[in-house]
Amino acid sequence: MAEQDEKPGVLSSCLLAFVPSSSLTPLTISELSKIVKENGAQVLEPTRQGKIRIPDATHIISNTIDFDQYKEAVDMMIPIVNSNWIKNSIMRGKTAQVRPYSPDPRMIFSNVVLTCADIPEVDKETILGATMAMGGMESKDLSRQTTHICALTMDHPKCQEAVAKHPKCKIVLPHWFDDCFKLGKRIDEGPYLLPDPEYCSKGSEDEVKIPPSQSLDGAVSAVPNTLIEGRKKVIVFAQKKVMLSTDLNLNARLRNIITGIITDGGGEVVDVVDSCDMFICHFRDGPQYVRAAQARKDVGNLAWLYHLIVHNEWTSPFRRLLHYPIPREPLEGFKDMRISLSNYGGDSRIYLENLITAAGATYTKTMTANNTHLITARNHSEKCEAAKDWNIQVVNHLWIEESYARCKVQSISARYQHFPARTNLGEVIGQTFHDEEVLKALFYPGGEENSGRSVKRKRKSMADGLENGRSAQKGGSGFNVMNDSSPAVARNARAPRGTQATAGEFTTPAKGRHVRSGKENDTPSAVSTGSRSAKAQALSKLHGLAPDIALYEKEKKRTKDGPWGGKRAADQIDKERSMTTSSSPAPREDEENDVQKSVSKRAQKKQRLSLPDVEMRVVLTGYQRWLDDISKEEADKKKLRAMGILIVQDNLPCDYLAAPHMVRTKKFLRCLSRGPEVISSMFIDACLEAGKRLDPADYTLKDKENEKKWGIKLSTSVARARANRGRLLQSVPIYCTADIKNGCDNYQTIAEANGAIFKIYRARSGTTIKPTTAEEDGGAPPEPVYLLTSDSAAEKVLWGKFEKMAKDGHMEPRIVAPDWLLDVCMRQELTFHPKLLARNVFPS
Predict the structure, then answer these.
(1) 211, CA 20 to 30 Å: which among 316, 523, 713, 756?
(2) Buried-exposed string 458-483: b where 16+ CB fall within 10 A, e elsewhere
(3) Where is there biased composition of kind Polar residues (predicted)?
(4) In what order do the strands lie in the sheet containing 393-395?
């Protein structure tokens, strides 16, 4: 009877997928996952490729739209909400609306909960309606969730109650909403705040400080002017294939630096459009650009690539206007324009100068009567006054941004001539997105990825996924296993990333004007499959002939005074060859065969000297075949290299991790954090015995005994690692005693491979946490800080000092056995159980 009376959890109908980011770390995800499970939700594990199970999810939890499956989720109409949606759903006792919790910055009133005070009814309805349309929510009464009160004075009871009980609630004039609506951007509330709004006390002609440019970091120019060297490991390219177009005009040194950063971070640089995930070019034209854009690759310019490297986090190239390739010719209507700027400074001014030039207009530093437009952040300046006298159009920056985004000059409306009295519009610069549909229509029409058939296929997949997910939930499964291996789902998951090759287009970089031979309608995929090996063979033959060519050229330069040979011999040979070709009869068949055999032998000999491309990079751990036998190890490694298998150290990028069984060693856990395929080391033995490279898929590591022992599933750990991309312990502080068993270096390697902040704790200055209070930390609950320790007497002395240091710094001390770190990194899930506290593992 009790079971029948038990109510389902608030989130019992939800299948949630989390997106890790700098604003939603694995630590926060771990805590939220525990909360939503307690309230009936099911948390979806990532696919084996580390991707979100979009067809299965009812909601995607993300604090940003900057993740590479965002567009796919939107196409399949899966709600994307920020983490506040969870808190408010549980607080309300039912699933909250989706719109107010959108992470899309274009929903300018997302996270605004508004109530109105002494506002006329007509104005109240208008303000509330527009606020909710742009992501906000209405609160009829003042509550703890209310963020804004719209009022004309402080006399209303709601305003007085807010001052007394809710000091964080902002009381603003209705003019703030009016200006935000007109601009379509959310400007700072500061000048509109009651009881003493600057909006009423100062005029529009009074000076306004130029604000910093919040959205222009790394996006002021399409061509970055900084060199990226010596940066920490960049994980944003993990499992990504990047193609650098020839129109970037990179010198050899810079290309090598960029290639090194990508490969060191687990990515790959390729030279075939069909093979890449990311295509980097300068201009939005040419067959390679068109092909990549139609196939829905991530197409961006060098500034976008640098932004990814510097911030180490993925963002869409459509997000910032100068992160997308620029047009080679002026956009429609811009060719004869002369544009000047006023009231913008710093990065904002540089950004607008570059945007004007990229659009095809002429930027002028000074303004004359010949100018056609003046772009200004406020409508008060000497240039503004002169513009009125010379009948020059005065507009805000939204006009040039939206004209560039829509690829043609926009007619000047009231929105582009609106200037809030106490606001410098530089604070909302750089927030305009590209219009992808316009770009597609103008620069890469065609492709079937956006066709009605494709969208219907996605929606059907979504419906099937939801049904399967709910079935799995009823059956108690952690996730829908069928979706990971089903060919139909695999094809659907790839749909947004690639489409069928278009006939007759280039598939190799534009080096000169070489056009591949063969039938016009051959599918490029067939050509590209063998392009790498063919290129390697051609280079190998060329390198083999290089000494002979050099010797021939050297002999030709010798003078006639020396022994016979040199130039005289070369000239005579060339002469005889030309005479033979023109007058001699065809050679006898036996002579021709002898020549062919000789050439064939020589080619085979030269070809054997070159090595094939590396197809597999493998890290070996726990391997016993070469124990105490260095000569055998060297010989076997040479054989493997001849098969295209390279054995690498654990600190280098790898595709495969090979071990006889699951082990919690430094090498195994360090490599696991990158999400490689984990195979049995029997694969190496089998290849050496067979004398050829076998299929590694037949040697996937299976270790049921250790999976049961540690309570994990290896395939799930690999999938999580690919989703985490080395950020499992991002921003998590982990201290370690200097005298810990097995040495702190091993634990440091494992922790830092997973993104942790690692320090040695000796209870001295320099290793202490700065004392703070809850108020200084914004009232947030204390975050955990860990100390790895073993059970020696010297280490136990430090435990009390560590606890005091952590509590003084408003952090929660967790003194744990090393098994906690090994378990977390093997699971690739940040969890904590009191049984791993040092006091429970090492009782006195």
Answers:
(1) 316
(2) beebbebbbebbbebbeeeeebbeeb
(3) 523-534
(4) 362-363, 338-342, 373-376, 393-395
Q: 532 or 443: which carries more pLDDT confidence?
A: 443
**DSSP E strand boundaries for 10-53:** 15-18, 42-43
**449, 496 contact by CB (below 8 A):** yes
**DSSP letter string, 92-147:** HTSPPPSGGG---TTSTTTT-EEEESS--HHHHHHHHHHHHHTT-EE-SS--TT--
Q: Using alpha carbons only, give the angle 66, 72, 74 rounded to the nearest 5 degrees.
A: 80
Mean pLDDT is lowest, of 313-322, 573-582, 717-726, for 573-582
CA distance 345 to 536: 52
In this predicted structure, the answer to whether residue 830 has a pLDDT above a threshold of 70 is yes
Q: How confident is the model at residue 315 (pLDDT cuts 50, 70, 90)?
A: very high
Single-letter code of the amino acid located at 293: A
Query: What average pLDDT does range 422-446 have in this prediction?
Result: 93
Distance CA 27, CA 18 (A): 12
Who contacts 606 (Cβ-Cβ below 8 Å, separation ≥6)? 540, 541, 544, 545
> How many CB atoms are closer than 10 A to CB 392?
22
Higher pLDDT, 481 or 796: 796
**Which amino acid is present at 145?**
Q
CB atoms within 10 A of CB 799: 17
CA distances from 701 to 262, 359, 456 (A): 28, 55, 38
State the pLDDT at residue 725: 87
Q: What is the largest distance, in Å, between two alpha-carbon atoms of the chain?
A: 114
Gyration radius of the chain's alpha carbons: 33
Domains of the chain in sequence order: 1-106+448-500 (3.40.50.10190), 113-201 (3.40.50.10190), 241-323 (3.40.50.10190), 616-714 (3.40.50.10190), 733-841 (3.40.50.10190)
C-alpha span between 828 and 215 (Å, rounded): 33
Q: Which residues are registered as beta bridge partners of 518? A: none
Element (H, E) at 576: helix 566-583
**Pairwise CA distance, residues 553 & 636, whole Å:** 40
As a residue count, the chain comes to: 844
- For residues 325-329, give the mean pLDDT: 96
Of 481-495, 530-544, 742-756, 761-775, highest mean pLDDT: 742-756
pLDDT of residue 393 exceeding 80: yes
Please report the pLDDT score of residue 598 as a whole number. Answer: 57
Q: Count of CB atoms within 10 A of residue 124's CB?
A: 17
Give the span between the Cα atoms of 153 and 150, in whole angstroms. 9
What pLDDT, on a 0 to 100 scale, did the predictor assign at position 527?
Answer: 34
Question: Helix 589-609 crosses helix 524-556 at what angle (to 10 degrees)?
Answer: 100
Tell me the mean pLDDT in the region 416-422: 94
Greater model confidence, 646 or 599: 646
Answer yes or no: are the C-beta atoms of 124 and 157 closer than 8 Å: no
Output phi, psi for 704, to 5 deg.
-60, -35
What are the residues whose beta carbons fall under 8 Å from the beta carbon of 832, sequence distance 6 or more? 784, 814, 820
Mean residue pLDDT of the chain comes to: 82
Dist CA 606 CA 506 (whole Å): 31
Work out the pLDDT band at 766, boundaries 50, 70, 90.
Answer: low
Q: Mapping DSSP to helix (H, G, I), strand (E, B) and coil, where does residue 17 land?
A: strand
Do 340 and 362 form a contact (C-beta atoms < 8 A)?
no
pTM across the whole model: 0.72
The continuous run of DSSP H or E covering 529 comes out as: helix 524-556
Tokens at 372, concatenated? 């056609």
Q: Which of 36, 15, 4, 18 is nearest to 472 (CA)?
A: 15
The residue behind tokens 């009022």 is 151
Q: What is the pLDDT of residue 56?
A: 93
- Report helix, strand or coil for 15: strand
d(CA 146, CA 149): 8
